[in-house]
Amino acid sequence: MRLLFVILAHDRPEAAAALAAALTDGATDARALIHFDARADAASFERLAAAAAGQDRVRLAAERVATPWGRWGLVQATLDALEEARGWGRAGDGWTPDRALLLSGACLPCRPVRALERFLRAHPRREFIEAGPASWIKGGIKEERYRHWFPFDFRAQRRLHHLFHQAQRILGVERRVPDGLIPRFGSQWWGLTWETCLKLLAHRVAHPDHMRWFRWSWIPDEFAIQTLVAALVPAGRIEGRGLTHAPFDDDGRPVVFFDDHEAYVRSLDAFFFRKASPEATRLRAVAMEAARQDDDGAPVRLDGRAGEDHALRAQALGAY
Question: How far is Cα of residue 97 from the mean position of the Cα atoms in its chain?
Fold first, then answer.
């Protein structure tokens, strides 16, 4: 099985390169493509290039875009990476993946990559992505994410973001959902068959109006690809969850894992978790070692059991 790991990173270049190396080292046949935020300084990118040098199966994205939180760049970088990987099959050594998995530079493996391969071989047609209704969103605005325009950056232009949103509410402004699309939401991190990835790329070209509609929504990384997969793939093939355990706290912030979460991470019904603290050096080392190990044959249920009690356990350990 050929795996493509697309890794979106914006800082800590050495950690992103180490993650890519661990995943490709542990796999039968895999490549990793790292997209590094175009906003990062040149020195950070040079550090990434140096850390990845000599790793034949790790590549850096040829085209880099800005990827601020909640903006279209995160989706564009993902689609551009898939397009670049498709080019590998058309030229050079003709390498084509069977699966693509989207991770962040702050993700870590919690099982051997060989176990992931076994699991995916057992589910050859399943798309591991969340694609649920707006009720998936636990706090804040829901349908307005796509009903309104969001041209301003929430973090860099918060006041403008808020005022423009409120003006649309007062004036009753609403954007129309394009024909053929039903909005779906879910975690940004997924594992898709290459067949579906090619459908996404073809749709991108055939429907630039859809891309423009997604572009001006808010937090499109939790919305655009999820909506497209739901439109392009039979519902029975969509698993409804991904391969990465990425919980949020009650304020909508990602839960951060530390060294004392090692036992909990090992118990997860997942293959990856997000996100690890930069201070969690032991946890990171254990995760990298786990990725390179042989398949231990342990069953994987992916039913969310271990995540249900995460809030209490993480809070008790001081993860918040």
Answer: 17
Edge-to-edge strands, sheet with 29-36: 58-60, 29-36, 2-9, 99-104, 191-193
Distances (CA, A) of 55 to 80, 85, 121, 124: 22, 17, 26, 28
What are the tokens at 110?
């919690």
Give residues with Cβ within 8 angstroms of 169, minimum separation 6: 144, 148
- What values do phi and psi take at 24, rounded to 5? -75, -35
Among 290, 257, 261, 235, smallest CA distance to 116 is for: 290
pLDDT tens for each residue of the chain, 320 residues long = 999 999 999 999 999 999 999 999 999 999 999 999 999 999 999 999 999 999 999 999 999 999 999 999 999 999 999 999 999 877 767 899 999 999 999 999 999 999 999 999 999 999 999 999 999 998 889 999 999 999 999 999 999 999 999 999 999 999 999 999 999 999 999 999 999 999 999 999 999 999 999 999 999 999 999 999 999 999 999 999 999 999 887 777 888 999 999 999 888 889 999 989 999 999 999 999 999 999 989 888 776 544 455 554 554 345 43
Residues 6+ apart with CB under 8 A from 52: 17, 20, 21, 34, 58, 59, 60
Q: Which two tokens stand for residue 210?
A: 């859809």
The 10 Å Cβ neighbour count of residue 255 is: 19
